Amino acid sequence: MLDIKAIQEILPHRDPFLLLDRVDLLEPGKKTVAVKCVTFNEYFFKGHFPQEPVMPGVLIIEALAQAGAVALLSQEDNKGKIAFFAGIDGAKFRRKVVPGDVLRLEVEIIKQRGPMGVGKAAAYVGEELATECELKFFIGE
């Protein structure tokens, strides 16, 4: 299990854009299961939407990408590098994510060739699927 300090040693993201609270499972280069505790105090709820706060789908995708980046950047050859988006395929949003939800972010690296690769990603609230997609990435300096 990785706490926020350990995550910050791997990822370059910082507040307000670090969207992981902890990592519960890490298989470097293969898989990450991370957690984002969604609170009413998140900056994006001020405008999305004040009358019915909903976590923007693009930020759920970003949280999944950060979870995938932990798997990639925890590999010895990738330490100190940055994982960039190269594409997002098949994104589907199955339920709203609202204050009080705990997102479980699961990313499995299904293909990697050189600095390019693909991760299968899913975000859950409890056992309910909230978001799924394939994330394409590029590892850069």
TrEMBL record:
Annotated active site: 48
**Which Enzyme Commission number(s) are on file for it?**
4.2.1.59
Q: Which reaction does it catalyse?
A: a (3R)-hydroxyacyl-[ACP] = a (2E)-enoyl-[ACP] + H2O
GO MF terms listed in the record are:
(3R)-hydroxyacyl-[acyl-carrier-protein] dehydratase activity
Output a single Gene Ontology CC term carried by this record: membrane
Query: What name goes with this protein?
Result: 3-hydroxyacyl-[acyl-carrier-protein] dehydratase FabZ
The processes (GO biological process) annotated in the record are: fatty acid biosynthetic process; lipid A biosynthetic process
Entry's family note: Belongs to the thioester dehydratase family. FabZ subfamily.
Q: Which HAMAP family match?
A: FabZ (MF_00406)
Which Pfam families does the record match to this protein? FabA
Question: Native species of this protein?
Answer: Anaerotalea alkaliphila
Location within or outside the cell: Cytoplasm
What is the annotated role of this protein in its UniProt record? Answer: Involved in unsaturated fatty acids biosynthesis. Catalyzes the dehydration of short chain beta-hydroxyacyl-ACPs and long chain saturated and unsaturated beta-hydroxyacyl-ACPs.
**Is Lyase among this UniProt entry's keywords?**
yes
What are the alphabetically sorted keywords of the record?
A: Cytoplasm, Lipid A biosynthesis, Lipid biosynthesis, Lipid metabolism, Lyase
